[in-house]
């Protein structure tokens, strides 16, 4: 058997033996004797009686092993024109001291801490400080509006909120304090304290229960690591589901640490001392796993980049960083390369830099579309690896695995299942689909270490969202197929989740926001194709009687409403007012038909439709508004 097949089969046939071996990759305070067990819902739990501390494994341990003077973080912030190198020893001191400061504020093991920060070293410090105390962090992405922050504060009920005075976005200072104040005013939960890191770009006035980061730290003594059980939660990370309420994905400690340590070698082909550059944000799972935790667990240096792929100052920023820090592996979303390609199609910026240190390029967050794959493949001398994963899994489900056995790449495919993930494609009846047959992509239980262990405070939702559709399998929500060689092709979501610029968003949540406007009788939000961002949301709205005049005003109000409620990251910029929406006789809006119309595809009229002429009306409105490729659509059949 070839190395990949051998490793993969061992991981599926003998998961306990396989993961017991991988568990040796991390330093334990008490090594586990139980490798795999099941909770009362029959969900896998890994390393339940082992004890460790993730901050110890990533920082204290490496300093003890002689990596103290190696760079842990290269902070590169073109938006503030700052570059800083922070060694493992320096980072450990900063983390231990901030952990001491949190302790002074009463934070203990199991308490939640919400972190609302941009891409600055203090964000990493705050995350590790929580891990050091056994507190559970929940990082919220800076592009979310107060309402979203409020929902997360309400759900996680943090003892402390840690924030910065501002983010810097598209050349503008975005003050965070007003966002936090509005969020706290909307949330019934009141944290004991809010710690704010004041950045030079934006000062703040401190109110009661608000503390200046620097003052707190200057008065704090370093805190020791608190031992936690393997199954104790490390963090909650909220992600979009099909409804307005985001899901708090719970990640355990030891399973995650072992999975990340394994992936650093098997997938990212990195050795301790190498440099990993992941251009994402600490607010997303990619940032948690491969900016903050994975690289440092493995003794690598990580690049923390505060900027965009383009216009900071030009389309050469990524290439500059690869040269400057001698980056070994680089990871970002395909949309970032589409932005670079749009700005610099001939890649002339690349000619200025020596990127010979780079061995592999990785992309995820959305499907790597074949044109972008070919552009990159022609441009670079290194393998371009598309790999597929989700907030829920915490690390890749399918990938090319150069650390085990490099495989030929196929455009549009995330290559093969990663060891530990028993990936299958099921048809509607729950039967295994054959090669090239598209169906629901599922993962047979037990899920490997690192995957979600629950939805915070909502065990029922964990079951209904992921486990109920096909008993014994985790439902990924993605559709796809295997080809004859066992390559996996992920073709897109099968639910109401869309992917905009590598960010996961819920159309259901947007519909709730639109439906809350007093003038809206009915609405549907669909994702339409966009060359740069992959997908963009579009709202189709039927106004109530009496609100049909001035559709432009209503459209503008609805766009503003989504931006103010969900945030600019929703990229919600198009609304069409229509008289009717195509529905079934039982009143269900035919969303797939709407998506196909917007994408210029031929549509068939289902026999269950209530009023076939509504399709023509909507199509006409889409063409007038130049939505997607609607004007290319052939006449409706
Ligand atoms: N704080 C406040 N606002 C933010 C923000 C933040 N942290 N991040 C984004 N926004 C705003 C943007 O300024 C933009 O506002 P606008 O509507 O006023 O223009 C809006 O949210 C949409 O942002 P985005 O979709 O990111 O568009 P963009 O034009 O700024 O950038 C890309 C486009 C492709 C360059 C960018 O999305 C990108 O680099 N994506 C990579 C995706 C990624 O990291 N995915 C994680 C998984 S790997
Ligand atoms: P998130 O949880 O935000 O990381 O989004 C996860 C979703 O993004 C997946 O369910 C997929 O729909 C999509 N996705 C992520 N990576 C890929 C990929 N490499 N190929 C196809 N879709 C992807």
Automatic annotation (TrEMBL):
<dbReference type="Pfam" id="PF00501">
    <property type="entry name" value="AMP-binding"/>
</dbReference>
<dbReference type="InterPro" id="IPR020845">
    <property type="entry name" value="AMP-binding_CS"/>
</dbReference>
<feature type="domain" description="AMP-dependent synthetase/ligase">
    <location>
        <begin position="69"/>
        <end position="446"/>
    </location>
</feature>
<dbReference type="InterPro" id="IPR045851">
    <property type="entry name" value="AMP-bd_C_sf"/>
</dbReference>
<feature type="domain" description="AMP-binding enzyme C-terminal">
    <location>
        <begin position="509"/>
        <end position="588"/>
    </location>
</feature>
<feature type="domain" description="Acetyl-coenzyme A synthetase N-terminal">
    <location>
        <begin position="4"/>
        <end position="58"/>
    </location>
</feature>
<dbReference type="Pfam" id="PF13193">
    <property type="entry name" value="AMP-binding_C"/>
</dbReference>
<dbReference type="InterPro" id="IPR042099">
    <property type="entry name" value="ANL_N_sf"/>
</dbReference>
<dbReference type="InterPro" id="IPR032387">
    <property type="entry name" value="ACAS_N"/>
</dbReference>
<dbReference type="Pfam" id="PF16177">
    <property type="entry name" value="ACAS_N"/>
</dbReference>
<dbReference type="InterPro" id="IPR025110">
    <property type="entry name" value="AMP-bd_C"/>
</dbReference>
<protein>
    <submittedName>
        <fullName>Propionyl-CoA synthetase</fullName>
    </submittedName>
</protein>
<dbReference type="InterPro" id="IPR000873">
    <property type="entry name" value="AMP-dep_synth/lig_dom"/>
</dbReference>
<comment type="similarity">
    <text>Belongs to the ATP-dependent AMP-binding enzyme family.</text>
</comment>
